[in-house]
Write a structure and sequence with these properties.
Blueprint: E1 3-4, H1 15-21, H2 23-26, H3 37-57, E2 64-67, H4 70-86, E3 96-100, H5 105-116, E4 120-124, H6 134-140, E5 145-149, H7 163-173, E6 176-180, H8 192-195, E7 199-203, E8 214-218, H9 244-282, E9 286-289, E10 299-304, H10 309-318, E11 321-322, E12 328-330, E13 333-335, H11 338-342, H12 347-351, E14 353-357, H13 364-384
Parallel strand pairs: 1-11, 3-4, 3-5, 5-6, 6-7
Antiparallel strand pairs: 2-8, 7-8, 9-10, 10-14, 12-13
Helix pairs in contact: 1-9, 3-9, 4-5, 6-7, 9-13, 10-13
């Protein structure tokens, strides 16, 4: 039996989501921009999905923009705010963005591109537990600050950032605030007013919906320059023919997320804790990375000293266990995770780390199977490693 423990990378499409999507591929195939009956059926389906996504976020349906996923939503939010400022007299001189050192590359690379274009960007560090201090955000503010962008839950560590506090800081400073909530949607209750965000990104395939669709919340009155030019879809904020089947799936996934969040939290959280405790009890020289309390309930990131993370992922896969490493492959070289480096891990430690993420379809039997395999795989890899662990440090 194969065991999938990589839910932060993607989730399987829930069968209820698939069932509502299928008719929109062939039977109800109308263009949502058409005024005839088929088109209006498609438009009604898109509008219903928009209401479901808005309900998950505590937003108004008119504030939801459907995109091709979380990456586009992040790009639209950040480039959209910067682009709109260039044409607004009151913001024309504001060319400063604040973010953190542990953002997903969908935000990090956008900010680096802005820096290349002459926008000043401050990358605020995080603590060794992987949490940013809101006061560091406050201290980074300048008169020319236009935007703060901070993720809600980190994709590698699961650590939860103090979004409410940062939102209050942004509001008091009259600065736009964007939050990448791709990893927190469906895991944590989201209320855009409570979080005090102006923009918030989610992705359907992280909440048991289809790949290739996501959404950006845009608070009413927030200016947003579109990334593309074309027709008038999504209230002129995202031109192009709507992906009706995908949007319908996104809406259903959001509806299910709202309904099942409480139950998932308790059941999956207990499985994660059992996996973590068993691993720490059975495997010597293992470290749990990030804050062990302030994190989403499905994620744990381990460093197994003396066992390379990439080799460990491959060896576990051969044993039927699927997980991931935060390392990125660039030009044939495995680069250590920028997130793990940001919390103080050495290159060797970062390269010896793996992320385990559980989900809605994870079973107790699967967790037991993974526990039974992991310690033996780590032991074999350490025996082959030139940096084999000779003694067990205190945990």
């Amino acid at each position: 039996m194969r065991v999938y423990l990589d839910y932060n990378a993607t989730t399987p499409v829930d069968q209820s989501v698939l069932a509502v999507m299928v008719p929109y591929f062939a039977q109800n195939f109308g263009n949502a921009g058409s005024i005839h009956s088929d088109g209006q059926r498609a438009r009604s389906a898109v509008d219903a999905a928009r209401e479901s996504v808005a309900a998950l976020l505590g937003a108004k349906p008119a504030e939801i923009v459907f995109t091709s996923g979380g990456t586009e939503a992040d790009n639209l939010a950040i480039f959209g705010i910067i682009g709109s400022a260039s044409g607004a007299a009151e913001h024309a001189a504001k060319k400063h963005v604040i973010t953190t050192a542990i953002e997903h590359h969908a935000v990090l690379n956008v900010c680096e591109e802005l820096a290349r274009r002459g926008v000043d960007v401050t990358f605020v560090p995080v603590s060794s537990s992987g949490v940013v201090d809101p006061e560091d955000i406050r201290r980074a503010l300048r008169p020319e600050t236009l935007l703060i962008t901070v993720m809600h839950a980190n994709n590698e560590l699961g650590t939860i950032q103090p979004i409410e506090e940062i939102g209050r800081i942004a509001k008091a400073a009259d600065v736009y605030f964007h939050c990448d909530a791709v990893q927190s949607a469906g895991k944590l209750p989201l209320d855009v007013d409570l979080l005090a965000v102006d923009l918030l990104s989610i992705s359907a395939h992280k909440i048991y919906g289809p790949k290739g669709v996501g959404a950006l919340y845009v608070r009413s009155g927030t200016p947003l320059e579109p990334l593309f030019r074309g027709g008038h879809a999504e209230r002129d904020r995202r031109p192009g023919t709507e992906n009706v089947a995908g949007i319908v799936g996104c809406g259903k996934a959001a509806e299910l997320a709202a309904q099942q969040m409480a139950g998932d939290t308790g059941r999956i959280g207990a499985l994660r804790d059992r996996f973590e405790q068993a691993t720490c009890g059975m495997v010597p020289a293992v470290k749990v990375n990030g804050d062990r309390c302030r994190r989403v309930w499905n994620t744990v990131n381990f460093t197994f000293s003396g066992a390379g993370g990439e080799a460990l992922v491959i060896a576990l896969d051969l044993q039927g266990i699927e997980c991931s490493t935060g390392a990125a492959c660039s030009s044939g070289a495995v680069e250590p995770s920028h997130v793990l480096k940001a919390i103080g891990l050495s290159d060797d430690e970062a390269r010896s780390s793996v992320r385990i993420s559980l989900g809605r379809f994870t079973t107790s039997a699967e967790v037991d199977q993974a526990i039974g395999v992991l310690s033996g795989v780590v032991e074999r890899l350490r025996a082959l490693s030139p940096h084999a662990v000779s003694e067990v440090p205190a945990r």
